[in-house]
Specification:
This protein has 241 residues and is an alpha/beta fold. Helices cover 32% and strands 12% of the residues. It is built from 9 helices and 6 strands; from the N terminus they run H-H-H-E-E-H-E-H-E-H-H-E-H-E-H. The protein has a 6-stranded mixed sheet. Helix 5 packs parallel to helix 7. The longest helix has 13 residues. The radius of gyration is 18 Å and the shape is globular. 33% of the residues are buried.
């Protein structure tokens, strides 16, 4: 009810895109789309052993916006906003409207960190969702990264092509094109997330020659079933992921 939503919203971000709201079966109390994005009071239960930063990003963050866990690659988090907020997100304490985004000085510091370390071979853009940046800002960021000689590949992790496919327009696709190879990892957990609009958005990206990768979280009651996973992966293949 509304009081539950208000209590959860006071602590964690809530947003569901119109495209994904249309995929929810409101007559099914166990709908796998709703279970990913509609908040429940269980989110307010915090056990003593739980941590705000369960994957220890902070311990590997030498400058704001950078996570350097492995020698040859870094995460670059330019913003913490998403088009939709997964209830299982392990960065849920950080993401949300008005969440931290790198200002110009912080972004320059992060780029300098990458530029000064020749061992960094891959930069992975995450957040937040990097495709929440405007095409102009995203294109400029990819261009800056492509100017760093030792960065051989760029990877972008996103939900946008599936949950907000209208955002993948001509200008966004153009922004993704870069002299350094770009790989786009598309996050989806259930075959019903792929509307015809989502399939078309993936096709617009694939038609430019940008490889699409799949990212799936194993979730109880949503996709912990061999038949569901088979359907999901076959749908991804249909989308050229």
């Amino acid at each position: 009810d509304a009081s539950v939503l208000e209590a959860v919203a006071a602590r964690y971000a809530i947003a569901i895109t119109p495209a994904m709201a249309r995929q929810i079966d409101r007559d099914d109390p166990t709908d796998p789309i709703a279970r990913q994005f509609v908040p429940t009071p269980d989110e307010l239960i915090v056990l003593p052993q739980e941590r705000i930063d369960p994957i220890a990003d902070a311990a590997h963050s030498p400058v704001k916006g950078i996570v350097h866990r492995y020698p040859d690659r870094v995460l670059l988090k330019p913003l913490h906003a998403c088009p939709i907020y997964c209830r299982f997100c392990f960065r849920r304490e950080q993401v949300g409207p008005g969440g931290e985004a790198l200002d110009d000085t912080e972004l320059e510091t992060a780029l300098a960190y990458i530029g000064n370390r020749p061992e960094i071979w891959e930069v992975i853009l995450t957040g937040g969702d990097p495709l929440m940046l405007s095409p102009r800002r995203l294109g400029r960021l990819l261009h800056r990264l492509s100017c760093i000689p030792h960065v051989a590949t760029l990877r972008i992790h996103t939900r946008v092509p599936v949950v907000d496919p209208g955002r993948i327009d001509v200008t966004m696709v153009r922004a993704l094109r870069c002299t350094t190879p770009v790989w786009l990892a598309v996050h989806a957990n259930h075959p019903r997330e792929f509307s015809e609009a989502a399939l078309a958005a993936c096709a617009r990206i694939a038609d430019t020659g940008i490889p699409l990768l799949g990212q799936t979280v194993l979730l109880r009651g949503i996709n912990d079933d061999a038949a569901v996973l088979e359907a999901l992966f076959r749908t991804m293949i249909r989308a050229r992921i």
